[in-house]
């Protein structure tokens, strides 16, 4: 039965429409995007385990670190075995993470929650994140930015689905829990049932993606697609570079720095979103922001994070990958300065600045796979993407640490004002400046790192001559 998951059984037949692939990718990314919704039940876990915020918050950090590590380690395996087997393995690990986490909650063993949601779930995150993206790039060589934006938009939107769903499930399993009250906490049994429900439900949804994903035949091309025209754009190559060789190039590590800087700056706002808007408008003569309004602000940020993944990534197909990152990083610096200096002048101004910054954060995630395809080709782009995602793991630790260190030095939570955030925001300007310079230094990969033009293992090789088109325009 498991042989049906092999790559050779997933090659699309003649006439197969490539537009059937994005829904399969979304089925995976919408599920694993739940990782951004862990704050919904954070207070309930704190109360249940009778511990502090740091002990519970580290669950998210473990999951993000494991995402990057598993994507880096398993990237080559994903390319060799194909998306169907990789997505199935991802679904198994992701669901198992919830089930082991539920056992940890039921027995009040916090280490089981670390092992389950953090380690096992994080492995599912990493494998599930890269496999649909790699497949979409091969199906959309003419519009890689649009393709990756479609999938990674789902990751950003996963929290928008998971947050209200988790609140409603908790209120269903625990009638005493009030989803509209930020201070309300759910019982331990409700948390157990929540994790069990999410684990089973997400596994079923991810199976839709598993059995509907396909890879293009080695000689397939979109109707009317001419690789020579794409290669005429700056930094775009018709050659291919293996994952082992990619990490030997300067361009890979410069792009690593670019992604690290973009994510570090974005996650600094995302992680502090709710208290940040309340603190900015405390004791400055304007109306205080309520807990409910702060929650709405977080939802709006999630919307812009999701929309930016599609809009900006699609725009990169028109203006190029390097120019769009100059926008993310260069305009981002200006927006951070404005947020620090005049963000407290009006709530609408603060919200606008923060939302555009978060759209750049999402856009950076969605554009980077297409940037990798431009530089290294499609041969092992999933494996290269996996190695690059270690930048996300590092930024997931660095961003919150930088912001929290500055805030801890300024005072206690609940007493901070806009001025307390300025040192952290100006630091993020410096971080973005480093990324801006790194992006300017990226150059085409030297020919000595290129693979032979014949390709290997039936993987699409952009350097091969175009043969008969099959379908899927």
Q: How are the SSEs placed, and which strands pair?
A:
Elements: H1 21-32, H2 42-49, H3 53-81, H4 83-107, H5 110-139, H6 144-173, H7 188-212, H8 227-231, H9 243-246, H10 250-270, H11 273-280, H12 291-319, H13 321-342, H14 347-376, H15 381-388, H16 390-410, H17 418-440
Helix pairs in contact: 1-5, 1-6, 1-7, 2-3, 3-4, 3-5, 3-15, 3-16, 4-5, 4-7, 5-6, 5-15, 6-7, 6-12, 6-14, 10-14, 10-16, 10-17, 11-12, 12-13, 12-14, 13-14, 13-17, 14-15, 16-17
End-to-end separation:
32 Å
What's the total number of strands? Answer: 0
Instruction: Give the C-alpha Rg.
Output: 22 Å
Please describe the biggest sheet, giving its number of strands, its sense, and whether it closes into a barrel.
none
Runs with pLDDT <50, length 5+? 455-473
Choose one word for the global shape. globular
User: Mean pLDDT, rounded to whole units?
Assistant: 85
The CATH superfamily of the largest domain turns out to be: MFS general substrate transporter like domains
Beta-strand content estimate: under 5%
Topology pattern, helix = H, strand = E: HHHHHHHHHHHHHHHHH
Structural class: mainly alpha
- At CATH level 2, the architecture of the largest domain is Up-down Bundle
- CATH topology annotation of the largest domain: Growth Hormone, Chain: A
Q: Helix count?
A: 17
Number of domains in the coordinates? Answer: 2
Name the CATH class of the largest domain.
Answer: Mainly Alpha
In helices, the fraction of residues equals: 55-70%
